[in-house]
Amino acid sequence: MDKSSDIDKLKREVDKIDEELVGKLAERKNLTERVQKLKREGGLPAIDREREKQIIERLKKLFGGEIDDALITKLYSAILSDSTRSGRTKERVSSAKNILEALQTNPIIIAGPCSIESGEQIDRTAAQLSNYGIKFLRGGAFKPRTSPESFQGIGEEGLKYIRAAADKYDMFVVTEAMCSSHLDKYYDYLDVVQIGSRNMASYGFLKEVGKATAEDGKPVLLKRGFHSTLQELVYAANYILEYGNPNVMLCLRGIRTFEQIDSKMRNTPDLASILELKEATNLKVIFDPSHSTGDSKYVEAVSKAALLLGADGLIVETHYSPKDSISDKEQCVFPETVERIYNFAVDYNDFAKSLY
Ligand code: PEP
Ligand code: MN
Q: Is 223 in the pocket of ligand 1 (CB under 6 A)?
């Protein structure tokens, strides 16, 4: 009898401490949100791994005797990730809003090299493109090459270069994520998440993309599998849409048909599919004249045809010096070609408007 009333008394004390603990956690969160806000205003990174380590080490030193080290690490990993995540979510939502606003332009022109090769290469290409009014800078850091012997991209270093160039020239980064670990590690480098043709049917990955982008609505550029039907492309988009991100753009990039027996083109440009996709979905349709033809001499004509057929935009492989491209140099154009295509689109829009 006595014992149970003692237990009850102690339990009530425990309850009180729990209330105080969670109350203190709320106070802590409030303070860390203020820190995150100041970091955002100062353009500083949201996460400081060194500081996180110091916090945990300090607590272990102070309380290690009474509380298990592993428990301190576990508890604080959860608390620290909660405070940086809540700051980051707000930051991400507002940055996704800016990207979506920029995507309202007609046409959407995405240009840049096949692969990011160096800081100089992406900076020089971006400088020229931005001068012509281009807002979306492409470039692969991780390249899905058919042969493992081919150049695979320069990885995170490349993402840093393209991010720096885009920030410098007030552009947005369009780059491919090849797997969910890229989404985890590099999310903030990407303004538009490109899914490559070879990954269009990786349904597990598409679900990861849907989950990762659901919260902030970051746009996704989904490329058609070069062996996929239009229905399969639409289904693949649905995998992402189902998680609640409505901002999926479909990219036609050429398909492999029997023409490739004797056609010199890398693929058959799936131009007429623009008409069908525009009818079948409300999603934006982007055409890729580079991979669909594989030859720089056709890029301008096919781009114009795509725009006349109603494409919402283009993604064009561009290099300040195409002959020096490490990958896909045969299909790469000078920034001046993109300027001509862009001017054509603007003139055509004016003409189309004058008809109504
Ligand atoms: C690309 O655009 O960088 C690319 C690799 O294209 P695709 O996935 O269409 O082959
Ligand atoms: Mn390429």
A: yes
